[in-house]
Amino acid sequence: MVHSPIACSGWNYADLKPEARSFFQVSHMGAGAQGLGPSSSAFPGHSREQDWKRMRCCCLKMLFFSPQNPATITRILLSHFNWDKEKLMERYFDGNLEKLFAECHVINPSKKSRTRQMNTRSSAQDMPCQICYLNYPNSYFTGLECGHKFCMQCWSEYLTTKIMEEGMGQTISCPAHGCDILVDDNTVMRLITDSKVKLKYQHLITNSFVECNRLLKWCPAPDCHHVVKVQYPDAKPVRCKCGRQFCFNCGENWHDPVKCKWLKKWIKKCDDDSETSNWIAANTKECPKCHVTIEKDGGCNHMVCRNQNCKAEFCWVCLGPWEPHGSAWYNCNRYNEDDAKAARDAQERSRAALQRYLFYCNRYMNHMQSLRFEHKLYAQVKQKMEEMQQHNMSWIEVQFLKKAVDVLCQCRATLMYTYVFAFYLKKNNQSIIFENNQADLENATEVLSGYLERDISQDSLQDIKQKVQDKYRYCESRRRVLLQHVHEGYEKDLWEYIED
């Protein structure tokens, strides 16, 4: 089964107004089954401000919450339950609201605190802020429902530090010692004046919603602010509005035929220094006295440690002291001892593992590099298409070149990931069929690449067109056969793997 990329619905966080962004998570949940685009497209004919109010209203109706619960409090409650509205609904209507609000670290909106009421009374005298200890008029102080008040300057600096330096969004609590009441979105947006800090806060809140929703995923493309939504979470190819295609399950580029599990292991294997360690194990040994790593740079087995504090002399083959070897400078008379044989066997296994890894890694990297070059072919093909049109060919007639480059890039990407699949694959009859399919597709891909890189003259125009069309159709067919065979193996459990 060959997967085609799913064109996912998406919305652009950067297009929303600040007010809409602060309530974005709540409003999105009530907007319907499909993902929202920019809010102007969610409800045609309405301004973004109207769209925001409408989305907020949808959320509150969906949750059946009492009108005295502000949308920002609803957002905190949802965050506490990892945006699982069913769990929140169950807890909200079990009758113990005080326990629920206490666990979520918010004050029950239906019970305004007595301390809050007392602090709302005006005072003609200046008051000291409990953070900076400077005196300000009572009107310069603000706080949460818990009743703790601080000057606006200290509030702004406190929130800025929490957001920008500590990366906190949904778990910022009151700055009073021992108070765990969370700061709501309205308070944050009211007290922070720096637009960059506001944007960072909005992103943190939105990100918590996306990360907790199994049907949503940020597009991994650089500088893309879109989120894609699917109907079912699975390892399927999805395409963002920006054009980036990726695996919805792991977020990597679409990697058929290898599964996410093995690709993750492969990427880790390529990124860490484990293969450097393999090379060291395969090509060096440790001095038996000081254990410094030594590389053999000549044919003689008589080794002298270069460590100035060691200078030990030993045999490269058996790692024993050199003195008992007498005059046997080139042949170790202990060559067949069990310890020496075990050491050599371990070294051979390490060397074989390294050679196997390099075999698959080199081919994986080669197709990756070729794929980058192939992407640059589009500019060259565009020029060739223009030249062909000058030779009395229509625009439609020259589209075969673009189609050929599309197929070439698809084949390169598939071949690249077949080597990851093959690296972890145990040998059996089915793996032999897979390798034959892989080799056939690889040969055809190289031929197609060669055709596209040739110069096109008037005399060879029709000939090269026929060859390119025949070859890219063959490549399409062989790629489809390879992928179908691999997926058939998944369905029938034909594949066995090497646990690296």
Automatic annotation (TrEMBL):
GO CC annotation, single: nuclear body
Keyword Zinc part of the UniProt annotation: yes
Q: Which GO terms describe its biological process?
A: protein ubiquitination
Highest taxon listed in the record's lineage: Eukaryota
Enumerate the UniProt keywords alphabetically: Metal-binding, Repeat, Transferase, Ubl conjugation pathway, Zinc, Zinc-finger
Q: What InterPro entries does the entry give?
A: Ariadne (IPR045840), ARIH1-like_UBL (IPR048962), E3_UB_ligase_RBR (IPR031127), IBR_dom (IPR002867), TRIAD_supradom (IPR044066), Znf_C3HC4_RING-type (IPR018957), Znf_RING (IPR001841), Znf_RING/FYVE/PHD (IPR013083)
Tell me any Pfam family this protein matches: UBA_ARI1
Q: Which GO terms describe its molecular function?
A: ubiquitin conjugating enzyme binding; ubiquitin protein ligase activity; ubiquitin protein ligase binding; zinc ion binding
Q: What class of enzyme is it?
A: transferase
Coiled-coil ranges (or none): none
Q: Which reaction does it catalyse?
A: [E2 ubiquitin-conjugating enzyme]-S-ubiquitinyl-L-cysteine + [acceptor protein]-L-lysine = [E2 ubiquitin-conjugating enzyme]-L-cysteine + [acceptor protein]-N(6)-ubiquitinyl-L-lysine
Key word Signal present in the record? no
Under SUPFAM superfamilies, the record lists: RING/U-box
Q: What is its EC number?
A: 2.3.2.31
Q: Which residues form the RING-type domain?
A: 125-336, 129-177
- Name the protein family: Belongs to the RBR family. Ariadne subfamily.
Subunit: Interacts (via the first RING-type zinc finger) with UBE2L3. Associates with cullin-RING ubiquitin ligase (CRL) complexes containing CUL1, CUL2 and CUL3. Interacts with neddylated CUL1. Interacts with neddylated CUL2. Interacts with neddylated CUL3. Interacts with neddylated CUL4A.
Q: Identify this protein by name.
A: E3 ubiquitin-protein ligase ARIH1
Originating gene? ARIH1
